[in-house]
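From the shared-data thread, chain only:
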Amino acid sequence: MSYAKKQVYKKSKLKAQEEINGAKFSMFRHDVFNSKEYYSLSPIAVKLLVDAMAIYNRLNNGDLSFAFSIMKDRGWKSETTLRKAIKELLDANFLILSRQGGRNNRPNLYALSFYKINDCLNKDGFSKIDIKPTKKAPDDWKNALKN
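Structure, as tokens:
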């Protein structure tokens, strides 16, 4: 297969992976989904993980916000429950705190540890996050039950 044909195939494959019947979807890694670490999560943590996957778009890992004002639209009724779910996912290493919020009324930002961390830049070209982008997924969740 020629280089040009490979590129066309690759683009069409990516397009097919992004959409099914015109709707976008999230790909969840099977090694995560079938792990003891995932099975040990509470239902609220699983819901937040699914919501995080819905927000994630392959370019914004590290720029995921779970501010209650945003998450209310996703069905979250209690700020306390949301905080508990965030803490559980952080403790289980499925989430990484990519920016500590609070300064200038900015929210905390998070990254999913099972996908590579993106270079999240603001409109002026400066990084929004306090951690470095990665070339591959940190996969911190794999060590969660060992600690």
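The first helix runs from residue 3 to 18.
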